[in-house]
Design goal:
Shape: globular
Number of strands: 12
GO biological process, one term: L-tryptophan catabolic process to kynurenine
Radius of gyration: 18 Å
Strand content: 25-35%
CATH topology: Glucose Oxidase, domain 1
Keywords: Hydrolase, Metal-binding, Tryptophan catabolism, Zinc
Subunit structure: Homodimer.
Strand order of the largest sheet: 4-10-9-7-5-11-12
Distance between the termini: 11 Å
Number of domains: 1
Protein name: Kynurenine formamidase
Order of helices and strands: EEEEEEHEEHEHEEE
Catalytic activity: N-formyl-L-kynurenine + H2O = L-kynurenine + formate + H(+)
């Protein structure tokens, strides 16, 4: 095949970790018909659009922001860079991101200690406003993080708003524990919802795959 695939998406199931362990955010999966009464099995799922690995749209934090249908799918496909930030214990700031060679147009994935846990950590590592402003100044096309939120405890949600206002895409809930630091080809494909502020996504990283392939 010539390349390796890393599936960095969370598995959706009823016992999975959800933001702040809120019961109302847990997915519900119902079998609506099975082989005891039908020749085929069918299931129905009740799902928060921010479940597991997902892509946020600007409407999530900006009242006049665009919905999922306004996102450029091209930005969610292409080269990306996975950075090692496992040493950070709080907010990822400018000082943590300087000197690692982030370039304009990069899609940056932030690998932190969050990937070592499957439960929800109320003290999860996040991207601070300072870090978001630095990435905006460079002109990255997107940011992904291995937490169910890209910020924590910042009044007014400045990290989201800084990135959204700069047209930078946000992917949350990545699972990066088993992925080495380096460059990959990214496909982050959200469910094709139209008028929502987020959508669950299947995110794959390809190692050794170029656009020419």
């Amino acid at each position: 095949m010539g390349y390796k695939v890393y599936d960095v998406s969370m598995t959706i199931h009823e016992e999975m970790a959800v933001y702040k362990n809120k019961a109302e955010k847990k997915p519900e999966i119902e079998v609506i018909q099975d082989f005891d009464t039908s020749p085929a099995r069918e299931s129905r799922i009740h799902l928060d659009v921010h479940t597991g690995t997902h892509v946020d749209a600007p409407l999530h934090m900006l009242p006049d922001g665009g919905t999922m249908k306004t996102l450029e799918i091209e930005k969610l496909t292409g080269p990306c860079r996975l950075l090692d930030l496992t040493h950070v214990t709080g907010g990822i700031g400018r000082a943590d991101l300087e000197g690692v060679g982030i370039r304009e147009g990069d899609f940056v994935l932030l690998k932190t200690r969050n990937s070592d846990r499957e439960d929800f950590d109320f003290e999860f590592v996040f991207l601070s406003q300072d870090g978001a402003e630095y990435l905006t100044s460079i002109g990255v096309r997107g940011v992904g993080i291995d937490a169910l939120g890209i910020e924590r405890g910042q009044p007014g949600h400045p990290t989201h708003k800084t990135l959204f206002r700069a047209g930078i895409l946000i992917v949350e809930g990545l699972r990066l524990k088993d992925v080495p630091v380096g460059e990959y080809f990214l496909t982050a494909v959200p469910i094709k919802l139209r008028d929502t502020e987020a959508a669950p996504a299947r995110v794959l990283l390809f190692e050794g795959l170029s656009v020419a392939d």
